[in-house]
Amino acid sequence: MPFSAFWRNGELWLLACMLLVAGALGCGRSESYPSQPITLLCPWSAGGGTDRVSRQVAAQLEGALGVPVNVINATGGSGVTGHTRGAQARNDGYTLTMVTVELNMLHWRGLTSVTYKDFHPLHLLNRDSAALFVRADSSIASLDQLRDEIAQSPGKLKASGTAFGGIWHVAMAGWLDQQGVDPTAATWISINGSGPSIQELNAGGVDFICCSLPEVDALLASGDVRCLGVMSDERVGGFEQVPTFKEQGHDWSIAGWRGLAAPIGIPADRLERLEAAIGEVAHSEELRDFMSQAGFNLSLEGSEQFAQTLSRQDLIFEKVLTGPAFTTIKAEQFGAMLFPLMILTLLVGLLAVLIWKSFVSQKSRRPEPLVWPKLFGVITICVFYWLVSETVGFLLGAILLIIAVGLMVSPREQRLGNMKLTVPFAFLFSVLVYQGFAIWLSVPLPRGWWGW
Amino acid sequence: MMDEIQQAFSQVFFDPAIWLIVTGAAIYGIFLGAMPGLTATMGVALFVPITYWMEPVPALAAIVTMVACAIFAGDIPTTLMRVPGTPASAAYADDAYELAKRGQAQRALVVALWFSVCGGIFGGVLLMLVGHQLAAIATLFSVAEYFWLYLMGLSCAVIVGKEGVLRSAIGLLLGLFFSTVGLSAVFGEARFTFGHPELFQGINFIPAMIGLFGLSEVLRGVMSSDQVSATGVAQGSERGVFVSTLRTFFRRQGAWWRSSLLGTVIGALPGAGADMAAWVCVSVSKRFSRTPEEYGRGSSEAIADACSANSSSLAAAWVPALVFGIPGDSVTAIAIGVLYMKNLQPGPEIFEQQGALVYSLYFLFLLANLVMLPVGWLAIRASQQVLRVPRWILLPVVTLFCVVGSFAVNGSRFDVMLMLAFGLLGVLCERYRVSIGAMVLGLILGGPLEERFVQTLAGSQGNWTGFFDRPVALVLAILCVLIWGRVLWKTAVKPRGDGPVPDPPDSATL
User: Given this structure, which CATH class describes domain A129-254?
Assistant: First the structure.
């Protein structure tokens, strides 16, 4: 009965309208490039180093290209999410990605099938070398001493700097391996992000950390933390007092980097326009000032050179990440399922108690009945919006959504009267929301047929 | 030092440009916080390229004000539509929305505004007095201490839940379980993704929260047959509301001191933040309240204490950022970047070298909160119009906000689907009275909790003594055990003489 009432009440014509819209997909447009806002995907969260570089570059690209450039933080999965979304984005030149060193690492760790070959490199912007730090009161004075202590008593010294398998972990493990020491001899505590790792070093939870120089700048300058050496071929600008690994007889260098890339297959004329604009931004004085003041090491490489760097780096990471050194580290003492299993056990236990209690309990309270057609009606409308909004755009999708849900909650006899108000309201309100989100707050909403 | 304070004072209070910027940032912050899915962090990140052309004090002024106002404004959609604007509001979402349903939306919001302002000012003043002593707290906290701290925060959600310990714990565990979906940060292994690349990013708590609270409310509204507007008609005069709020404030001064102080301490720990401060203070407040049964059912005490706490924690989050260059939350992470751009280096000497700047920052907290009072009040008045909107317009609008808000977080279409799924889950949870507030907290803290758990174990080579062998960790562990002992004792021994309990826990059938 509820289902038949649902159909007779006029939702049918609405559904027909929706199908009509959905059927009319695929309206092509040809315009000069760029004519709509460009999205810059940042695989790391707002506030981090990559995000800061992304937002600075986006602000300058806006000037160079004459269209808004919006940064989206496609975070999660240690960079998998952002890089995958970037590689799979439509290759119309309206989606760029701020790729990071993880692009060369994730696929060797078997976490994604996306490699540097899925991207067209546009420009390398920044390169920060890894460095090792100890607390000022630590007894370790030099790299040799650190290496020897690790080798003599495996498992005694604890280190951190990033999550397990992250760039700084690979940097440390690679160094130990190159020095002929078992990379697992220093216990790596997997701490997400350099900030919490520095906190841990400060609190005495780890003995040394590995991360880039600018990240530890504050404590380095105050003398609370000492740097044992930086893993670069030459001393780093701004940190001239820090010796390199090479100077201390350890021939090992590794760095994290950030650069702009686009999905492969972008039309040549658009690519040319993009590369020109990005080249202009990269070599601008403004970017140089920003990078030096923010503590990032500016390192510029054009498209071709960047491509060579990518393929060269990929081989280095293959050697480290698939070599025996890293595959032995991979075998952890306790599995990744330990915590979820503990949670699930507790959950099952408590659910059993709940069921038993409700079985024993005399009192019962009848919950409100679920009206499934209405429930799924709203969900269906949202899914419909989800399906068509990419094509028809936010405005049309939102208008249909408001009208459809409005119809659904109006009693049958008031439906016509309500619609006289709902339809104009839907138009006005959708435009307002679009204005608020997409224009003022630069959250890109789907543009579709009507654009904005 | 007096010189510096004077200089800072005139820099902040006598500069018309600062007043202008603070007012502008307040309006922007309110707008931002009131939009579901847009967080304070995002607003600040959007603002960063602009700070490039600004002097340090105005730039900090804008950031500080924006965040304080966004955190308060998160209460507006929470109260009126039950869509938490920011995660910090989730702790008292039910209280605020229940009040709104009884026609006391204005009262709920004015309480939130007043206590946010007072908490914020408290935080600023406390920092001014003991700023860098507070920083010492952070050096006591290694991963083991954090593990116990997070566990305590989670226990708070179980204590607060109006659904009773059992059903709150089930909600919490569900949330914790959902937080393990995706690529594990500690292990670098995919869990429960079933080969879907979208699930690698895990379940983002903002779309989940919007679905659990907001969409589930729409779904229930659509299903219910009564045509009355979801939120009640406003009662009482505006003056009455203010007077009663002030009366509450003076009557509950002790509670206010406690919540603000606790909020400041929690805020000073990197990685704990405003969300945690709100939860912990609500549960502490419930413990000391004379009317604990009201919590979760429209208690203005819960709103007052949570707002004081989350607002005062904001200022304290700057302490570890200034002293160690370690960001206390994502906003201060951005702020550190801004400081670097201005050639100002965070570090233990910042108090000596940049004394004027640090004091200006403290004064800015005072100014931001003072400006927030009138701006917030205007926002409350404007938002009252929502109450007049008929149901058949309001429900579609909330639906649209849920869809757009969940998309806006990461620009991810997958998040919209996630929001819809959690909307359905929310309906089921309400039906079986499983706590969705606890579930959201579980989702937020699940990741950090597991990380700290694994890190502590790894640090002690898999030996469980690693959780107890530092003095602070031991103290926190004993506290946790005491909390749980008390909870279990109370549930095992039936409550006697605890006064009338309107809806006793664990009495309903499945």
Answer: alpha beta
